[in-house]
Design brief:
Layout lengths: L11 H19 L5 E7 L4 E7 L5 E8 L3 E9 L8 H13 L4 E4 L5 E8 L5 H26 L6
Antiparallel strand pairs: 1-2, 2-3, 3-4, 4-6, 5-6
């Protein structure tokens, strides 16, 4: 298991290279894409926000959090569904995870639905960043309408 809390000796050069890559690529080439609404950076965390437009929802934001040895990323997908019968939704999410690449659906401690993932810094490059963004975009476009229908079913008429 990879856990940044247990890393005794982070590689400062690797962390500096990852920071430069995220800054240059996200705030440069990615921010220039027409489907990207905004890219922001909060150096105090350090976190980058990439907000993009979608067909099935107004927009989604990928949070990129840089850790000592890995880059974590997530999208807040949907609030916790009401009621007690979440089995159809959770079944669908688990089934989609089986074929997903680059990100996975998860249920946060708050019960909300997220898309999450992480990559080791030694595997991080421009192509990997683009793959992550593309995977999240595809998963959001493909599954958001279905997740909404499963989480908030219309009452029978």
């Amino acid at each position: 298991m990879i856990d940044d809390e247990f890393d005794a000796r982070p590689d400062p050069a690797l962390l500096a290279a990852a920071t430069a890559l995220l800054h240059d690529h996200l705030e440069g080439a990615v921010a220039a894409e027409p489907w990207v609404q905004v890219v922001e950076h909060d150096a105090s965390i350090p976190r980058w926000y990439v907000r993009f437009g979608c067909e099935g929802r107004d927009a989604a934001t990928i949070y990129f959090d840089l850790h000592q040895r890995s880059l974590h990323y997530e999208v807040y997908f949907l609030p916790a569904p009401p009621g007690d019968d979440h089995e159809p939704l959770y079944r669908a999410l688990l089934g989609w995870n089986h074929a997903a690449y680059g990100a996975r659906f998860s249920i946060g401690p708050d019960g909300d639905v997220y898309l999450t993932g992480r990559v080791l810094l030694e595997h991080l490059d421009r192509a990997e960043l683009d793959r992550i963004i593309g995977s999240i975009y595809v998963l959001t476009e493909r599954y958001f309408p279905t997740v909404v229908r499963l989480a908030y079913p219309r009452p029978a008429q």
